[in-house]
């Protein structure tokens, strides 16, 4: 196990240093600062990737029934219902845009759709949890 963790740490340090070096090459104004910042920002995700590659495959197999719980059921029901709500909302928005002839900012429309979907799932999840408790 010590060898796997050593490989994980070494992998994280090498990847972070490589990303920092590449970033430093592309910023000639402050290469040292850029390299250090990028290396520091990459160290955590590189460590997670190293753990995934070297440690995770060698640990015990997960329980195949771990996903069978009431909270996961509530989330699946909430997400399914929110998807239907989102389809209706997008259909109405498409109709309004088609009839009005205006073309609003697509980024704003997509942001609104994402916010509505996330809020809808959260509200439906809370309602399902309260009903069944």
Describe the protein's architecture and organization.
This protein has two domains: 2-58, no CATH class; 70-131, no CATH class. Helices cover 80% and strands 0% of the residues. The chain has four helices and no strands. The protein has helices spanning 2-25, 31-55, 70-100, 106-131. The two termini are 43 Å apart. It has 133 residues and is an all-alpha fold. The mean pLDDT is 90. The longest helix has 31 residues, at 70-100. The protein is flat, with a radius of gyration of 23 Å.
Beta-strand content estimate = under 5%
- State the end-to-end CA separation: 43 Å
Radius of gyration: 23 Å
Q: Level of helix content?
A: over 70%
Biggest sheet: strands, sense, closure?
none
Write the H/E string, N to C: HHHH
Task: Please report the total strand number as a whole number.
Answer: 0
Structural class: mainly alpha
- What general form does the structure show? flat
Give the assembly state of these chains: single chain
For the record, the count of structural domains works out to 2
The parts where pLDDT drops under 50 for at least 5 residues are none
How many DSSP helices? 4
Mean pLDDT score: 90
Structure at a glance:
With 133 residues, the chain is mostly helical. It has two domains: 2-58, no CATH class; 70-131, no CATH class.
Topology of this structure?
Blueprint: H1 2-25, H2 31-55, H3 70-100, H4 106-131
Descriptive key words:
flat, 80% helix
């Amino acid at each position: 196990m010590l060898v796997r963790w050593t490989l994980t740490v070494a992998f994280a340090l090498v990847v972070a240093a490589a990303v920092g070096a590449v970033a430093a090459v592309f910023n000639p104004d402050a290469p040292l600062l850029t390299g250090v910042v990028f290396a520091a920002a990459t160290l955590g995700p590189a460590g997670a990737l190293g753990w995934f590659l070297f440690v995770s495959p060698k640990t015990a197999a997960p329980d195949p029934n771990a996903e069978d719980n009431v909270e996961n059921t509530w989330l699946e029901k909430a997400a399914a219902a929110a998807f239907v709500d989102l389809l209706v909302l997008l259909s109405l928005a498409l109709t309004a845009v088609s009839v009005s002839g205006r073309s609003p900012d697509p980024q704003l429309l997509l942001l609104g759709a994402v916010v509505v979907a996330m809020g809808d799932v959260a509200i439906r999840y809370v309602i399902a949890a309260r009903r069944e408790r």
